[in-house]
Amino acid sequence: HSKLRSSSNICLYSKDLTNGNSNKVFTENLIRNAINEDQLTVYYQPQIDLTFDKLHAVEALVRIKSPEHGLILPTGFIETAEESNLINELGDCILRNILRDARDWHREGINPRICINISAVQLAMNGFADYLISKIRDYELQLNMFEIEITENVLIQNMEATLNNIIKLTNHGIKIAIDDFGTGYSSLSYLDQLPLNTLKLDKSFMRKIVKADDDNTIIPAMINVSNGLQLDFIAEGVETIDQHEYLKTFGACIAQGYYYGRPMPGEQMLEYIKSFNPDRFGESH
Ligand code: C2E
Ligand code: MG
Ligand code: MG
Ligand code: MG
């Protein structure tokens, strides 16, 4: 009797386990395929300097173009890549895509700052900084046009290697941004201990702004903190004209979100930059 029950428990358990595994295996195969069959593509989203109404930078955002499943967003596969040792190969493939686009733009005389998301796993690897620097040089591009975006949780693992990489990158003119600020294990002490260039406030804070004259304490406070530490401040997730006008009332501020432009393929970003016109914000929304 008890044997029956336990065997049926095991059966249930192993069934769940199999389901969980097959999801992971499915995603791993998706990633491997994307790498091997050239199905990775990078989209770019503008960051706007609201003080001068000009383009500040573009952020590179990876997608998988799957023939069977369409365009797959990174939230569906970055974590799996990190867990299954595919992140370095994936990251390398993404980087080559970005550098190819950057070189194409450079040949047309367009040299925007390019922000690249880097996984904490990659940044914790010995030699990551040397790798990134030499890749950029291979494409004959300037190191100081690149910024890497890392999250606050980046220092949790292998702190020494991570710090060495950050310092080396900074010494070579590559800028560092803290992404999604305010969502992880934030510590304000990171902000002045690390050689950072930029603070990106997570989009959840922007979501609370509904009207241009809304009262909010966090956003202006974080702008002040950033100014005090001489960091660029970026508000993520700006979707509406009200949110845009809300931000316009503050001093130095950079904004990113669907209101200024959705992530778009490289050729489209080139056109966006060439015909940049602040009067047309809101049209892509
Ligand atoms: P992230 O770096 O914080 O990127 C911003 C995300 O917010 C992007 O999602 C972007 O499409 C989305 N977004 C931009 N404007 C708005 C807006 O106005 N409203 C809303 N609701 N969302 C907006 P995406 O492209 O799906 O990327 C998700 C995350 O995946 C990124 O978050 C980043 O953490 C990661 N990721 C993307 N590309 C890469 C990559 O090449 N390497 C690594 N390691 N991670 C990447
Ligand atoms: Mg980012
Ligand atoms: Mg973010
Ligand atoms: Mg994120």
UniProtKB/TrEMBL annotation:
Ranges where the EAL domain occurs = 24-277
User: What protein name is recorded for this chain?
Assistant: PAS domain S-box-containing protein/diguanylate cyclase (GGDEF) domain-containing protein
- State the organism named in the record: Malonomonas rubra DSM 5091
Which residues of the entire protein appear here: the answer is 441 to 725 of 725
